[in-house]
């Protein structure tokens, strides 16, 4: 399968990057907040519902298409409720159109990406919670460049609304038209942007016109393991799925692969995961990137099996997607199969994740990293001799 550039949109180099939060947008506010804002502008409160129905109910993001609003009102509400947050830089498709990746430029020039994945029974979007990431996991493309800034609630939600609109247009052949699942597995550490991510989840699960009306169980929050935030998440009245990026069962190796482990050790992070499982009744997904000769030894499978046996957990093995210039490779298939066999023998439910979007730099952060390199190269080319 070949990668297919769909829309080479804006190519202008970003202005000097000074990270700053975007203007407020309706998706930052709950319905009551939107009503207060609208009445403050001298408009009747019902306009808040009307605009929300367009945005969340019909997935219309362009104010000019909201033709049931009088023109003057439309312009005023567009300014205050619907500022443009995401400018598409590039959209790519692969897997015969079942995977679509979008790269966005934010108002301050920061780049983030999202992925839409169609399956016969569901449509999933993978969204970003931060521009960049401060967690510095050495195998992850996003981790290499560091954190630019947190995304606003609306910048997070708008990724899902945009791609829900793409799905609704029938662009993902062989899949239902309605977005059903959202995973926070794009750029960033969602629990490091806690309040905005929680607000975004509330928008995703509130019924229309307040929100997108997704099922809580169909939202997955993936974390490196910020222990206090996991406990806090367990105390929200949300039963979203927690994914824990473990990647090693022993502290020696996890200290290197997931540097936040130097703060919260394997035993502590697993305790937090079991607390989450106990308080929500939800099975925790343990993410484990299979890295050749690094974390894929039979003894590590056995140790992982002992840690997880009898727990409300499922292991999701991810074949490593090597980042450009990486010293690491994916584990060979026979090694992966042996790892799976040992975990299952220990009574631990285990699957290997599909590798959607590989040929469009689908791995975390790779598209943004590639764009950044292109831009830097262009800029170097322009420098006066
Ligand atoms: N910061 C969060 C969510 C973003 S990454 C977290 O770490 O969980 C989503 C998942 O992709 C994580 O499990 C992450 O470890 C994994 N990942 C990152 N880079 C990868 C790569 N090159 N190959 C395979 N998985 C990768």
Automatic annotation (TrEMBL):
The keyword Heme does not apply. Binds 1 [4Fe-4S] cluster. The cluster is coordinated with 3 cysteines and an exchangeable S-adenosyl-L-methionine. [4Fe-4S] cluster binds at residues 133, 137, 140. Keywords: 4Fe-4S, Cytoplasm, Disulfide bond, Iron, Iron-sulfur, Metal-binding, Methyltransferase, rRNA processing, S-adenosyl-L-methionine, Transferase, tRNA processing. It catalyses: adenosine(2503) in 23S rRNA + 2 reduced [2Fe-2S]-[ferredoxin] + 2 S-adenosyl-L-methionine = 2-methyladenosine(2503) in 23S rRNA + 5'-deoxyadenosine + L-methionine + 2 oxidized [2Fe-2S]-[ferredoxin] + S-adenosyl-L-homocysteine; adenosine(37) in tRNA + 2 reduced [2Fe-2S]-[ferredoxin] + 2 S-adenosyl-L-methionine = 2-methyladenosine(37) in tRNA + 5'-deoxyadenosine + L-methionine + 2 oxidized [2Fe-2S]-[ferredoxin] + S-adenosyl-L-homocysteine. The keyword Metal-binding applies. GO terms for cellular component: cytoplasm. Signal peptide: none annotated. Belongs to the radical SAM superfamily. RlmN family. This is Probable dual-specificity RNA methyltransferase RlmN. It comes from Micromonospora acroterricola. The gene is rlmN.
